Amino acid sequence: MTDSIDDFVLKFQSEILNEIKKTYGEKVYERWLNPLYMGSIKDPDGYARLKGRCEDTMEIFLVFEDDRVKQASFQTDGCGSSIVCGSYAAEMALGKSPDELLEVTAEAILEKLGGLPKEDEHCAFLAAEALHEALNGFMIKQAARKRNKL
Predict the structure, then answer these.
(1) Of 11, 21, 101, 124, whose CB is crowded by the most CB atoms within 10 A?
(2) Adjacency order of strands within the sheet including 46-51
(3) Cα–Cα distance between 122 and 75 in angstroms, integer?
């Protein structure tokens, strides 16, 4: 009896995973299973926490060195699409200058991952907006440091 239940669960799980892969594509599926750059960074130079229209929360953490992003990470309480978009936003931020970070848009994230179903595209907009807000936080800190040196 237990074997047949276990077999049923394994078959059902496999069908679900295959459907996810078919709907979202291999690239999104793989990043969803193994998200990169997930987690917080203590004392980041730039930080933002935003809530999307779907009620998902996205946090972006940035550390700069020599005016370039040295470390980037994200956290979300959202769905698989939010996880994938946050992961790509953090990855795409690495090595970029503040001006270059503005090029990491929702459209750029969607292009990088090969698209998402229309109903999930808002996750890329949330990730890009959180990244830009983290950049804004960094720029405000930089301006304050410069004022304090005067």
Answers:
(1) 124
(2) 46-51, 57-65, 68-76
(3) 16
Closest CA to 109 of 60, 53, 65, 45: 60
Half-sphere CA count of 44, side-chain side, radius 13 A: 26
Please give the model's pTM, rounded to 2 decimal places: 0.90
pLDDT tens profile 27-63: 999 999 999 999 999 999 999 999 998 899 999 999 9
CA nearest 81: which of 16, 125, 50? Answer: 125
Largest Cα–Cα distance in the chain?
77
Let me know how long the chain is: 150
